Amino acid sequence: MASSDDEDSENEVGDSYTFGELQFAFDELLVEFKKKCSQCSLLKKNIT
Q1: Distance (Å, rounded) from C-alpha 5 to C-alpha 25?
Q2: CA dihedral defined by 41, 43, 44, 48, rounded to 10 degrees?
Q3: How far is Cα 1 from Cα 11, in angstroms, rounded to an integer?
Q4: pLDDT of 1-48, one tens digit each?
Q5: Torsion 38-43-44-48 (CA) sign
Q6: Count of alpha carbons within 13 Å of 48, Cβ hemisphere only?
């Protein structure tokens, strides 16, 4: 079975982001993660 060009290019990253854009996205995810952690800890306190 021959490998097509589409399969090879699938692993390449077409989009390039600046450091600032990545940092902003990371900060947004971190805020969401902290919200989920606080919700989880509140649930644990309510269970016990």
Answers
A1: 31
A2: 140
A3: 19
A4: 555 555 555 556 667 889 999 999 999 999 999 999 998 888 888 877
A5: positive
A6: 5
